[in-house]
């Protein structure tokens, strides 16, 4: 009886993911890019794909897509990063290549899902308590979370409250509150100087 050849079960998956990446890079169609990026973000949810996604540099593709003007591409990219950053190697890559500013920029998106994924991604990238990457809990980020904690949107409000309680020190929250007392929506008010006496 002839022995069946052993076929690597993941070779097909890697090939499929490679085809998606190639399609994303070569297509001119925004609709096709959105569809491919959405598919890659969905594949990022499965830990068995992490190695392949790193090998194909999908993390960098997601990070690059955060700068796109197309809100759907940004939404799918931050969703993919959110799915991937629970893994230590992926988290370290995002931190090492300077992904934090790209992610924090998503906090000002008009798209609710983009903002929710950005907050969750920042939480995954943070270590509760001490911050090895202080930009994760910088003053503007904490101020933003304070505003989100007052949101009518329950999901956003709850995520922001968890972020403030679990990832920020009481001192950081107090400082952000102090700054917000002197500003409108995070924009500093003009300072008035006392008139000079002659």
Question: What would you note in describing this structure?
Answer:
There is one protein chain. This protein is an all-alpha fold. It folds into two domains: 13-113, Leucine-rich Repeat Variant (Alpha Horseshoe); 134-187, no CATH class. Helix content is 62%, strand content 2%. It has a two-stranded antiparallel sheet. The protein is elongated and about 55 Å long. Pfam families: Arm (PF00514). InterPro entries: ARM-like, ARM-type_fold, Armadillo, ARMC7. It comes from Octodon degus. This is Armadillo repeat-containing protein 7 isoform X1.
Secondary-structure class: mainly alpha
Task: Predict the CATH topology of the largest domain.
Answer: Leucine-rich Repeat Variant
Q: Helix-strand pattern, N to C?
A: HHHHHHHHHHHEE
Any idea what the radius of gyration is?
21 Å
Number of discrete helical segments? 11
CATH homologous superfamily of the largest domain - what is it?
A: Leucine-rich Repeat Variant
Strand content: under 5%
| Largest beta-sheet details | 2 strands, antiparallel
User: What CATH architecture label of the largest domain applies?
Assistant: Alpha Horseshoe
Average pLDDT number: 86
Separation of the first and last Cα atoms: 108 Å
Q: Please bin the fraction of helical residues.
A: 55-70%
CATH class of the largest domain: Mainly Alpha
- How many structural domains in the coordinates? 2
Strand order of the largest sheet: 1-2
Q: Let me know the number of strands.
A: 2
Q: Which stretches of 5+ consecutive residues score pLDDT under 50? A: 1-7, 186-195
């Amino acid at each position: 009886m002839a022995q069946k050849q052993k076929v690597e079960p993941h070779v097909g998956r890697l090939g499929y993911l490679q085809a998606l990446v190639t399609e994303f890079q070569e297509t001119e169609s925004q609709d096709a890019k959105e569809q491919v990026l959405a598919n890659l973000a969905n594949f990022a949810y499965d830990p068995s794909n992490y190695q392949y996604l790193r090998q194909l540099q999908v993390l960098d593709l997601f990070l690059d897509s955060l700068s796109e003007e197309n809100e759907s591409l940004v939404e799918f990219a931050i969703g993919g990063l959110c799915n991937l950053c629970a893994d230590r190697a992926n988290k370290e890559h995002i931190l090492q290549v300077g992904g934090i500013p790209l992610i924090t920029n998503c906090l000002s998106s008009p798209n609710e899902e983009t903002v929710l994924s950005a907050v969750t991604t920042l939480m995954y990238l943070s270590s509760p308590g001490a911050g090895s990457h202080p930009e994760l809990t910088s003053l503007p980020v904490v101020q933003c979370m304070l505003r989100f904690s007052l949101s009518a949107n329950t999901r956003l409000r709850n995520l922001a409250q968890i972020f403030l309680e679990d990832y920020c020190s009481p001192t950081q929250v107090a400082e952000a509150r102090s700054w917000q007392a002197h500003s409108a929506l995070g924009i500093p008010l003009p300072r008035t100087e006392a008139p000079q006496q002659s």
